[in-house]
Amino acid sequence: MLKRSFSFVAITLLLSALMLSCRQTSGPPQSSANARRYDLTGTVVSVDRAHKQVVVSHDPIPGFMDAMIMPFTLYADWAFDVLSPGDRIHATLVVDGDRSWLENPLVVRQEGAPAQTPSRASLQPGVEVPPFMLTNQDGKRINFADLRGRAVVLTFIYTRCPLPDYCPLMTSNFAAINQRLQADAELARRVKLLSITVDPEHDTPPVMRAYAMERAGVKDFRQWEFLTGSPDEVHRVATFFGLDYFAEGNQIIHNLCTALISPEGKIVKIYHGNEWKPEDVVDDLRATLGEKQAKS
Ligand SMILES: [Cu+2]
Description:
Layout: H1 2-23, E1 36-48, E2 53-58, E3 68-73, H2 79-82, E4 88-96, E5 99-108, E6 133-135, E7 141-143, E8 151-157, H3 167-182, H4 185-188, E9 191-197, H5 205-216, E10 224-227, H6 231-240, E11 245-248, E12 251-254, E13 257-261, E14 267-272, H7 278-295
Parallel strand pairs: 8-9, 9-10
Antiparallel strand pairs: 1-2, 1-4, 2-3, 4-5, 6-7, 8-13, 11-12, 13-14
């Protein structure tokens, strides 16, 4: 009896805590009389609390738009405590003039979905990167251990990515880094760039090669290589660098990670998300290699 009432109290407390958190949302601007409302269901791709944005791969919205992946504004702060990539989300999409946002989100954790990216112990500066094996755009096997002696900047992409501020941005950032390297032969000689796919089943070496040439203007792969591998090999590398990814239709739902690795094969810095700038990476490369020079 006692036990039962305890759990009743616990549930009541939990419920009131939940209701409290629901009420504590910093509300959206009042919607006008012209606002239209649509039911939205989809899968959460990524979450950006600072900008109150959630990227959703949503189902078709009859009479409004086809299924696609796009960012939505979400004012309900509490939702960011529980939202993780891979969750199913149900919400009301409010479209009011040139503004739109989601209301009344309901979040359903998907079975087997990756949890919110934890800050992984493996990603600390100074940690040694294991001798991963992957395959480059020419079908040649690449062992990370053989990259020692050069600083490595790597990122994760997939060639079919439709989100302009995800993989296409990573690739154009790397193209900008590459351009700066080409202007400084001394620096370029001591740096390697790697773009690693998280869609190895589709992104074979020829697909990676074509992508590199068409989308990144790469002609000389000695500076910048595009790596793929078996799903297992890719998974080992991606997981080490904190990637969460899984297939959804013909797209890959994923987060981002860009890493700077020292010539000794140790993590120097992790650039999370998509807000880092190519020039910052080049500065960090100079600092990393400059230090090494001073020490030797
Ligand atoms: Cu992407």
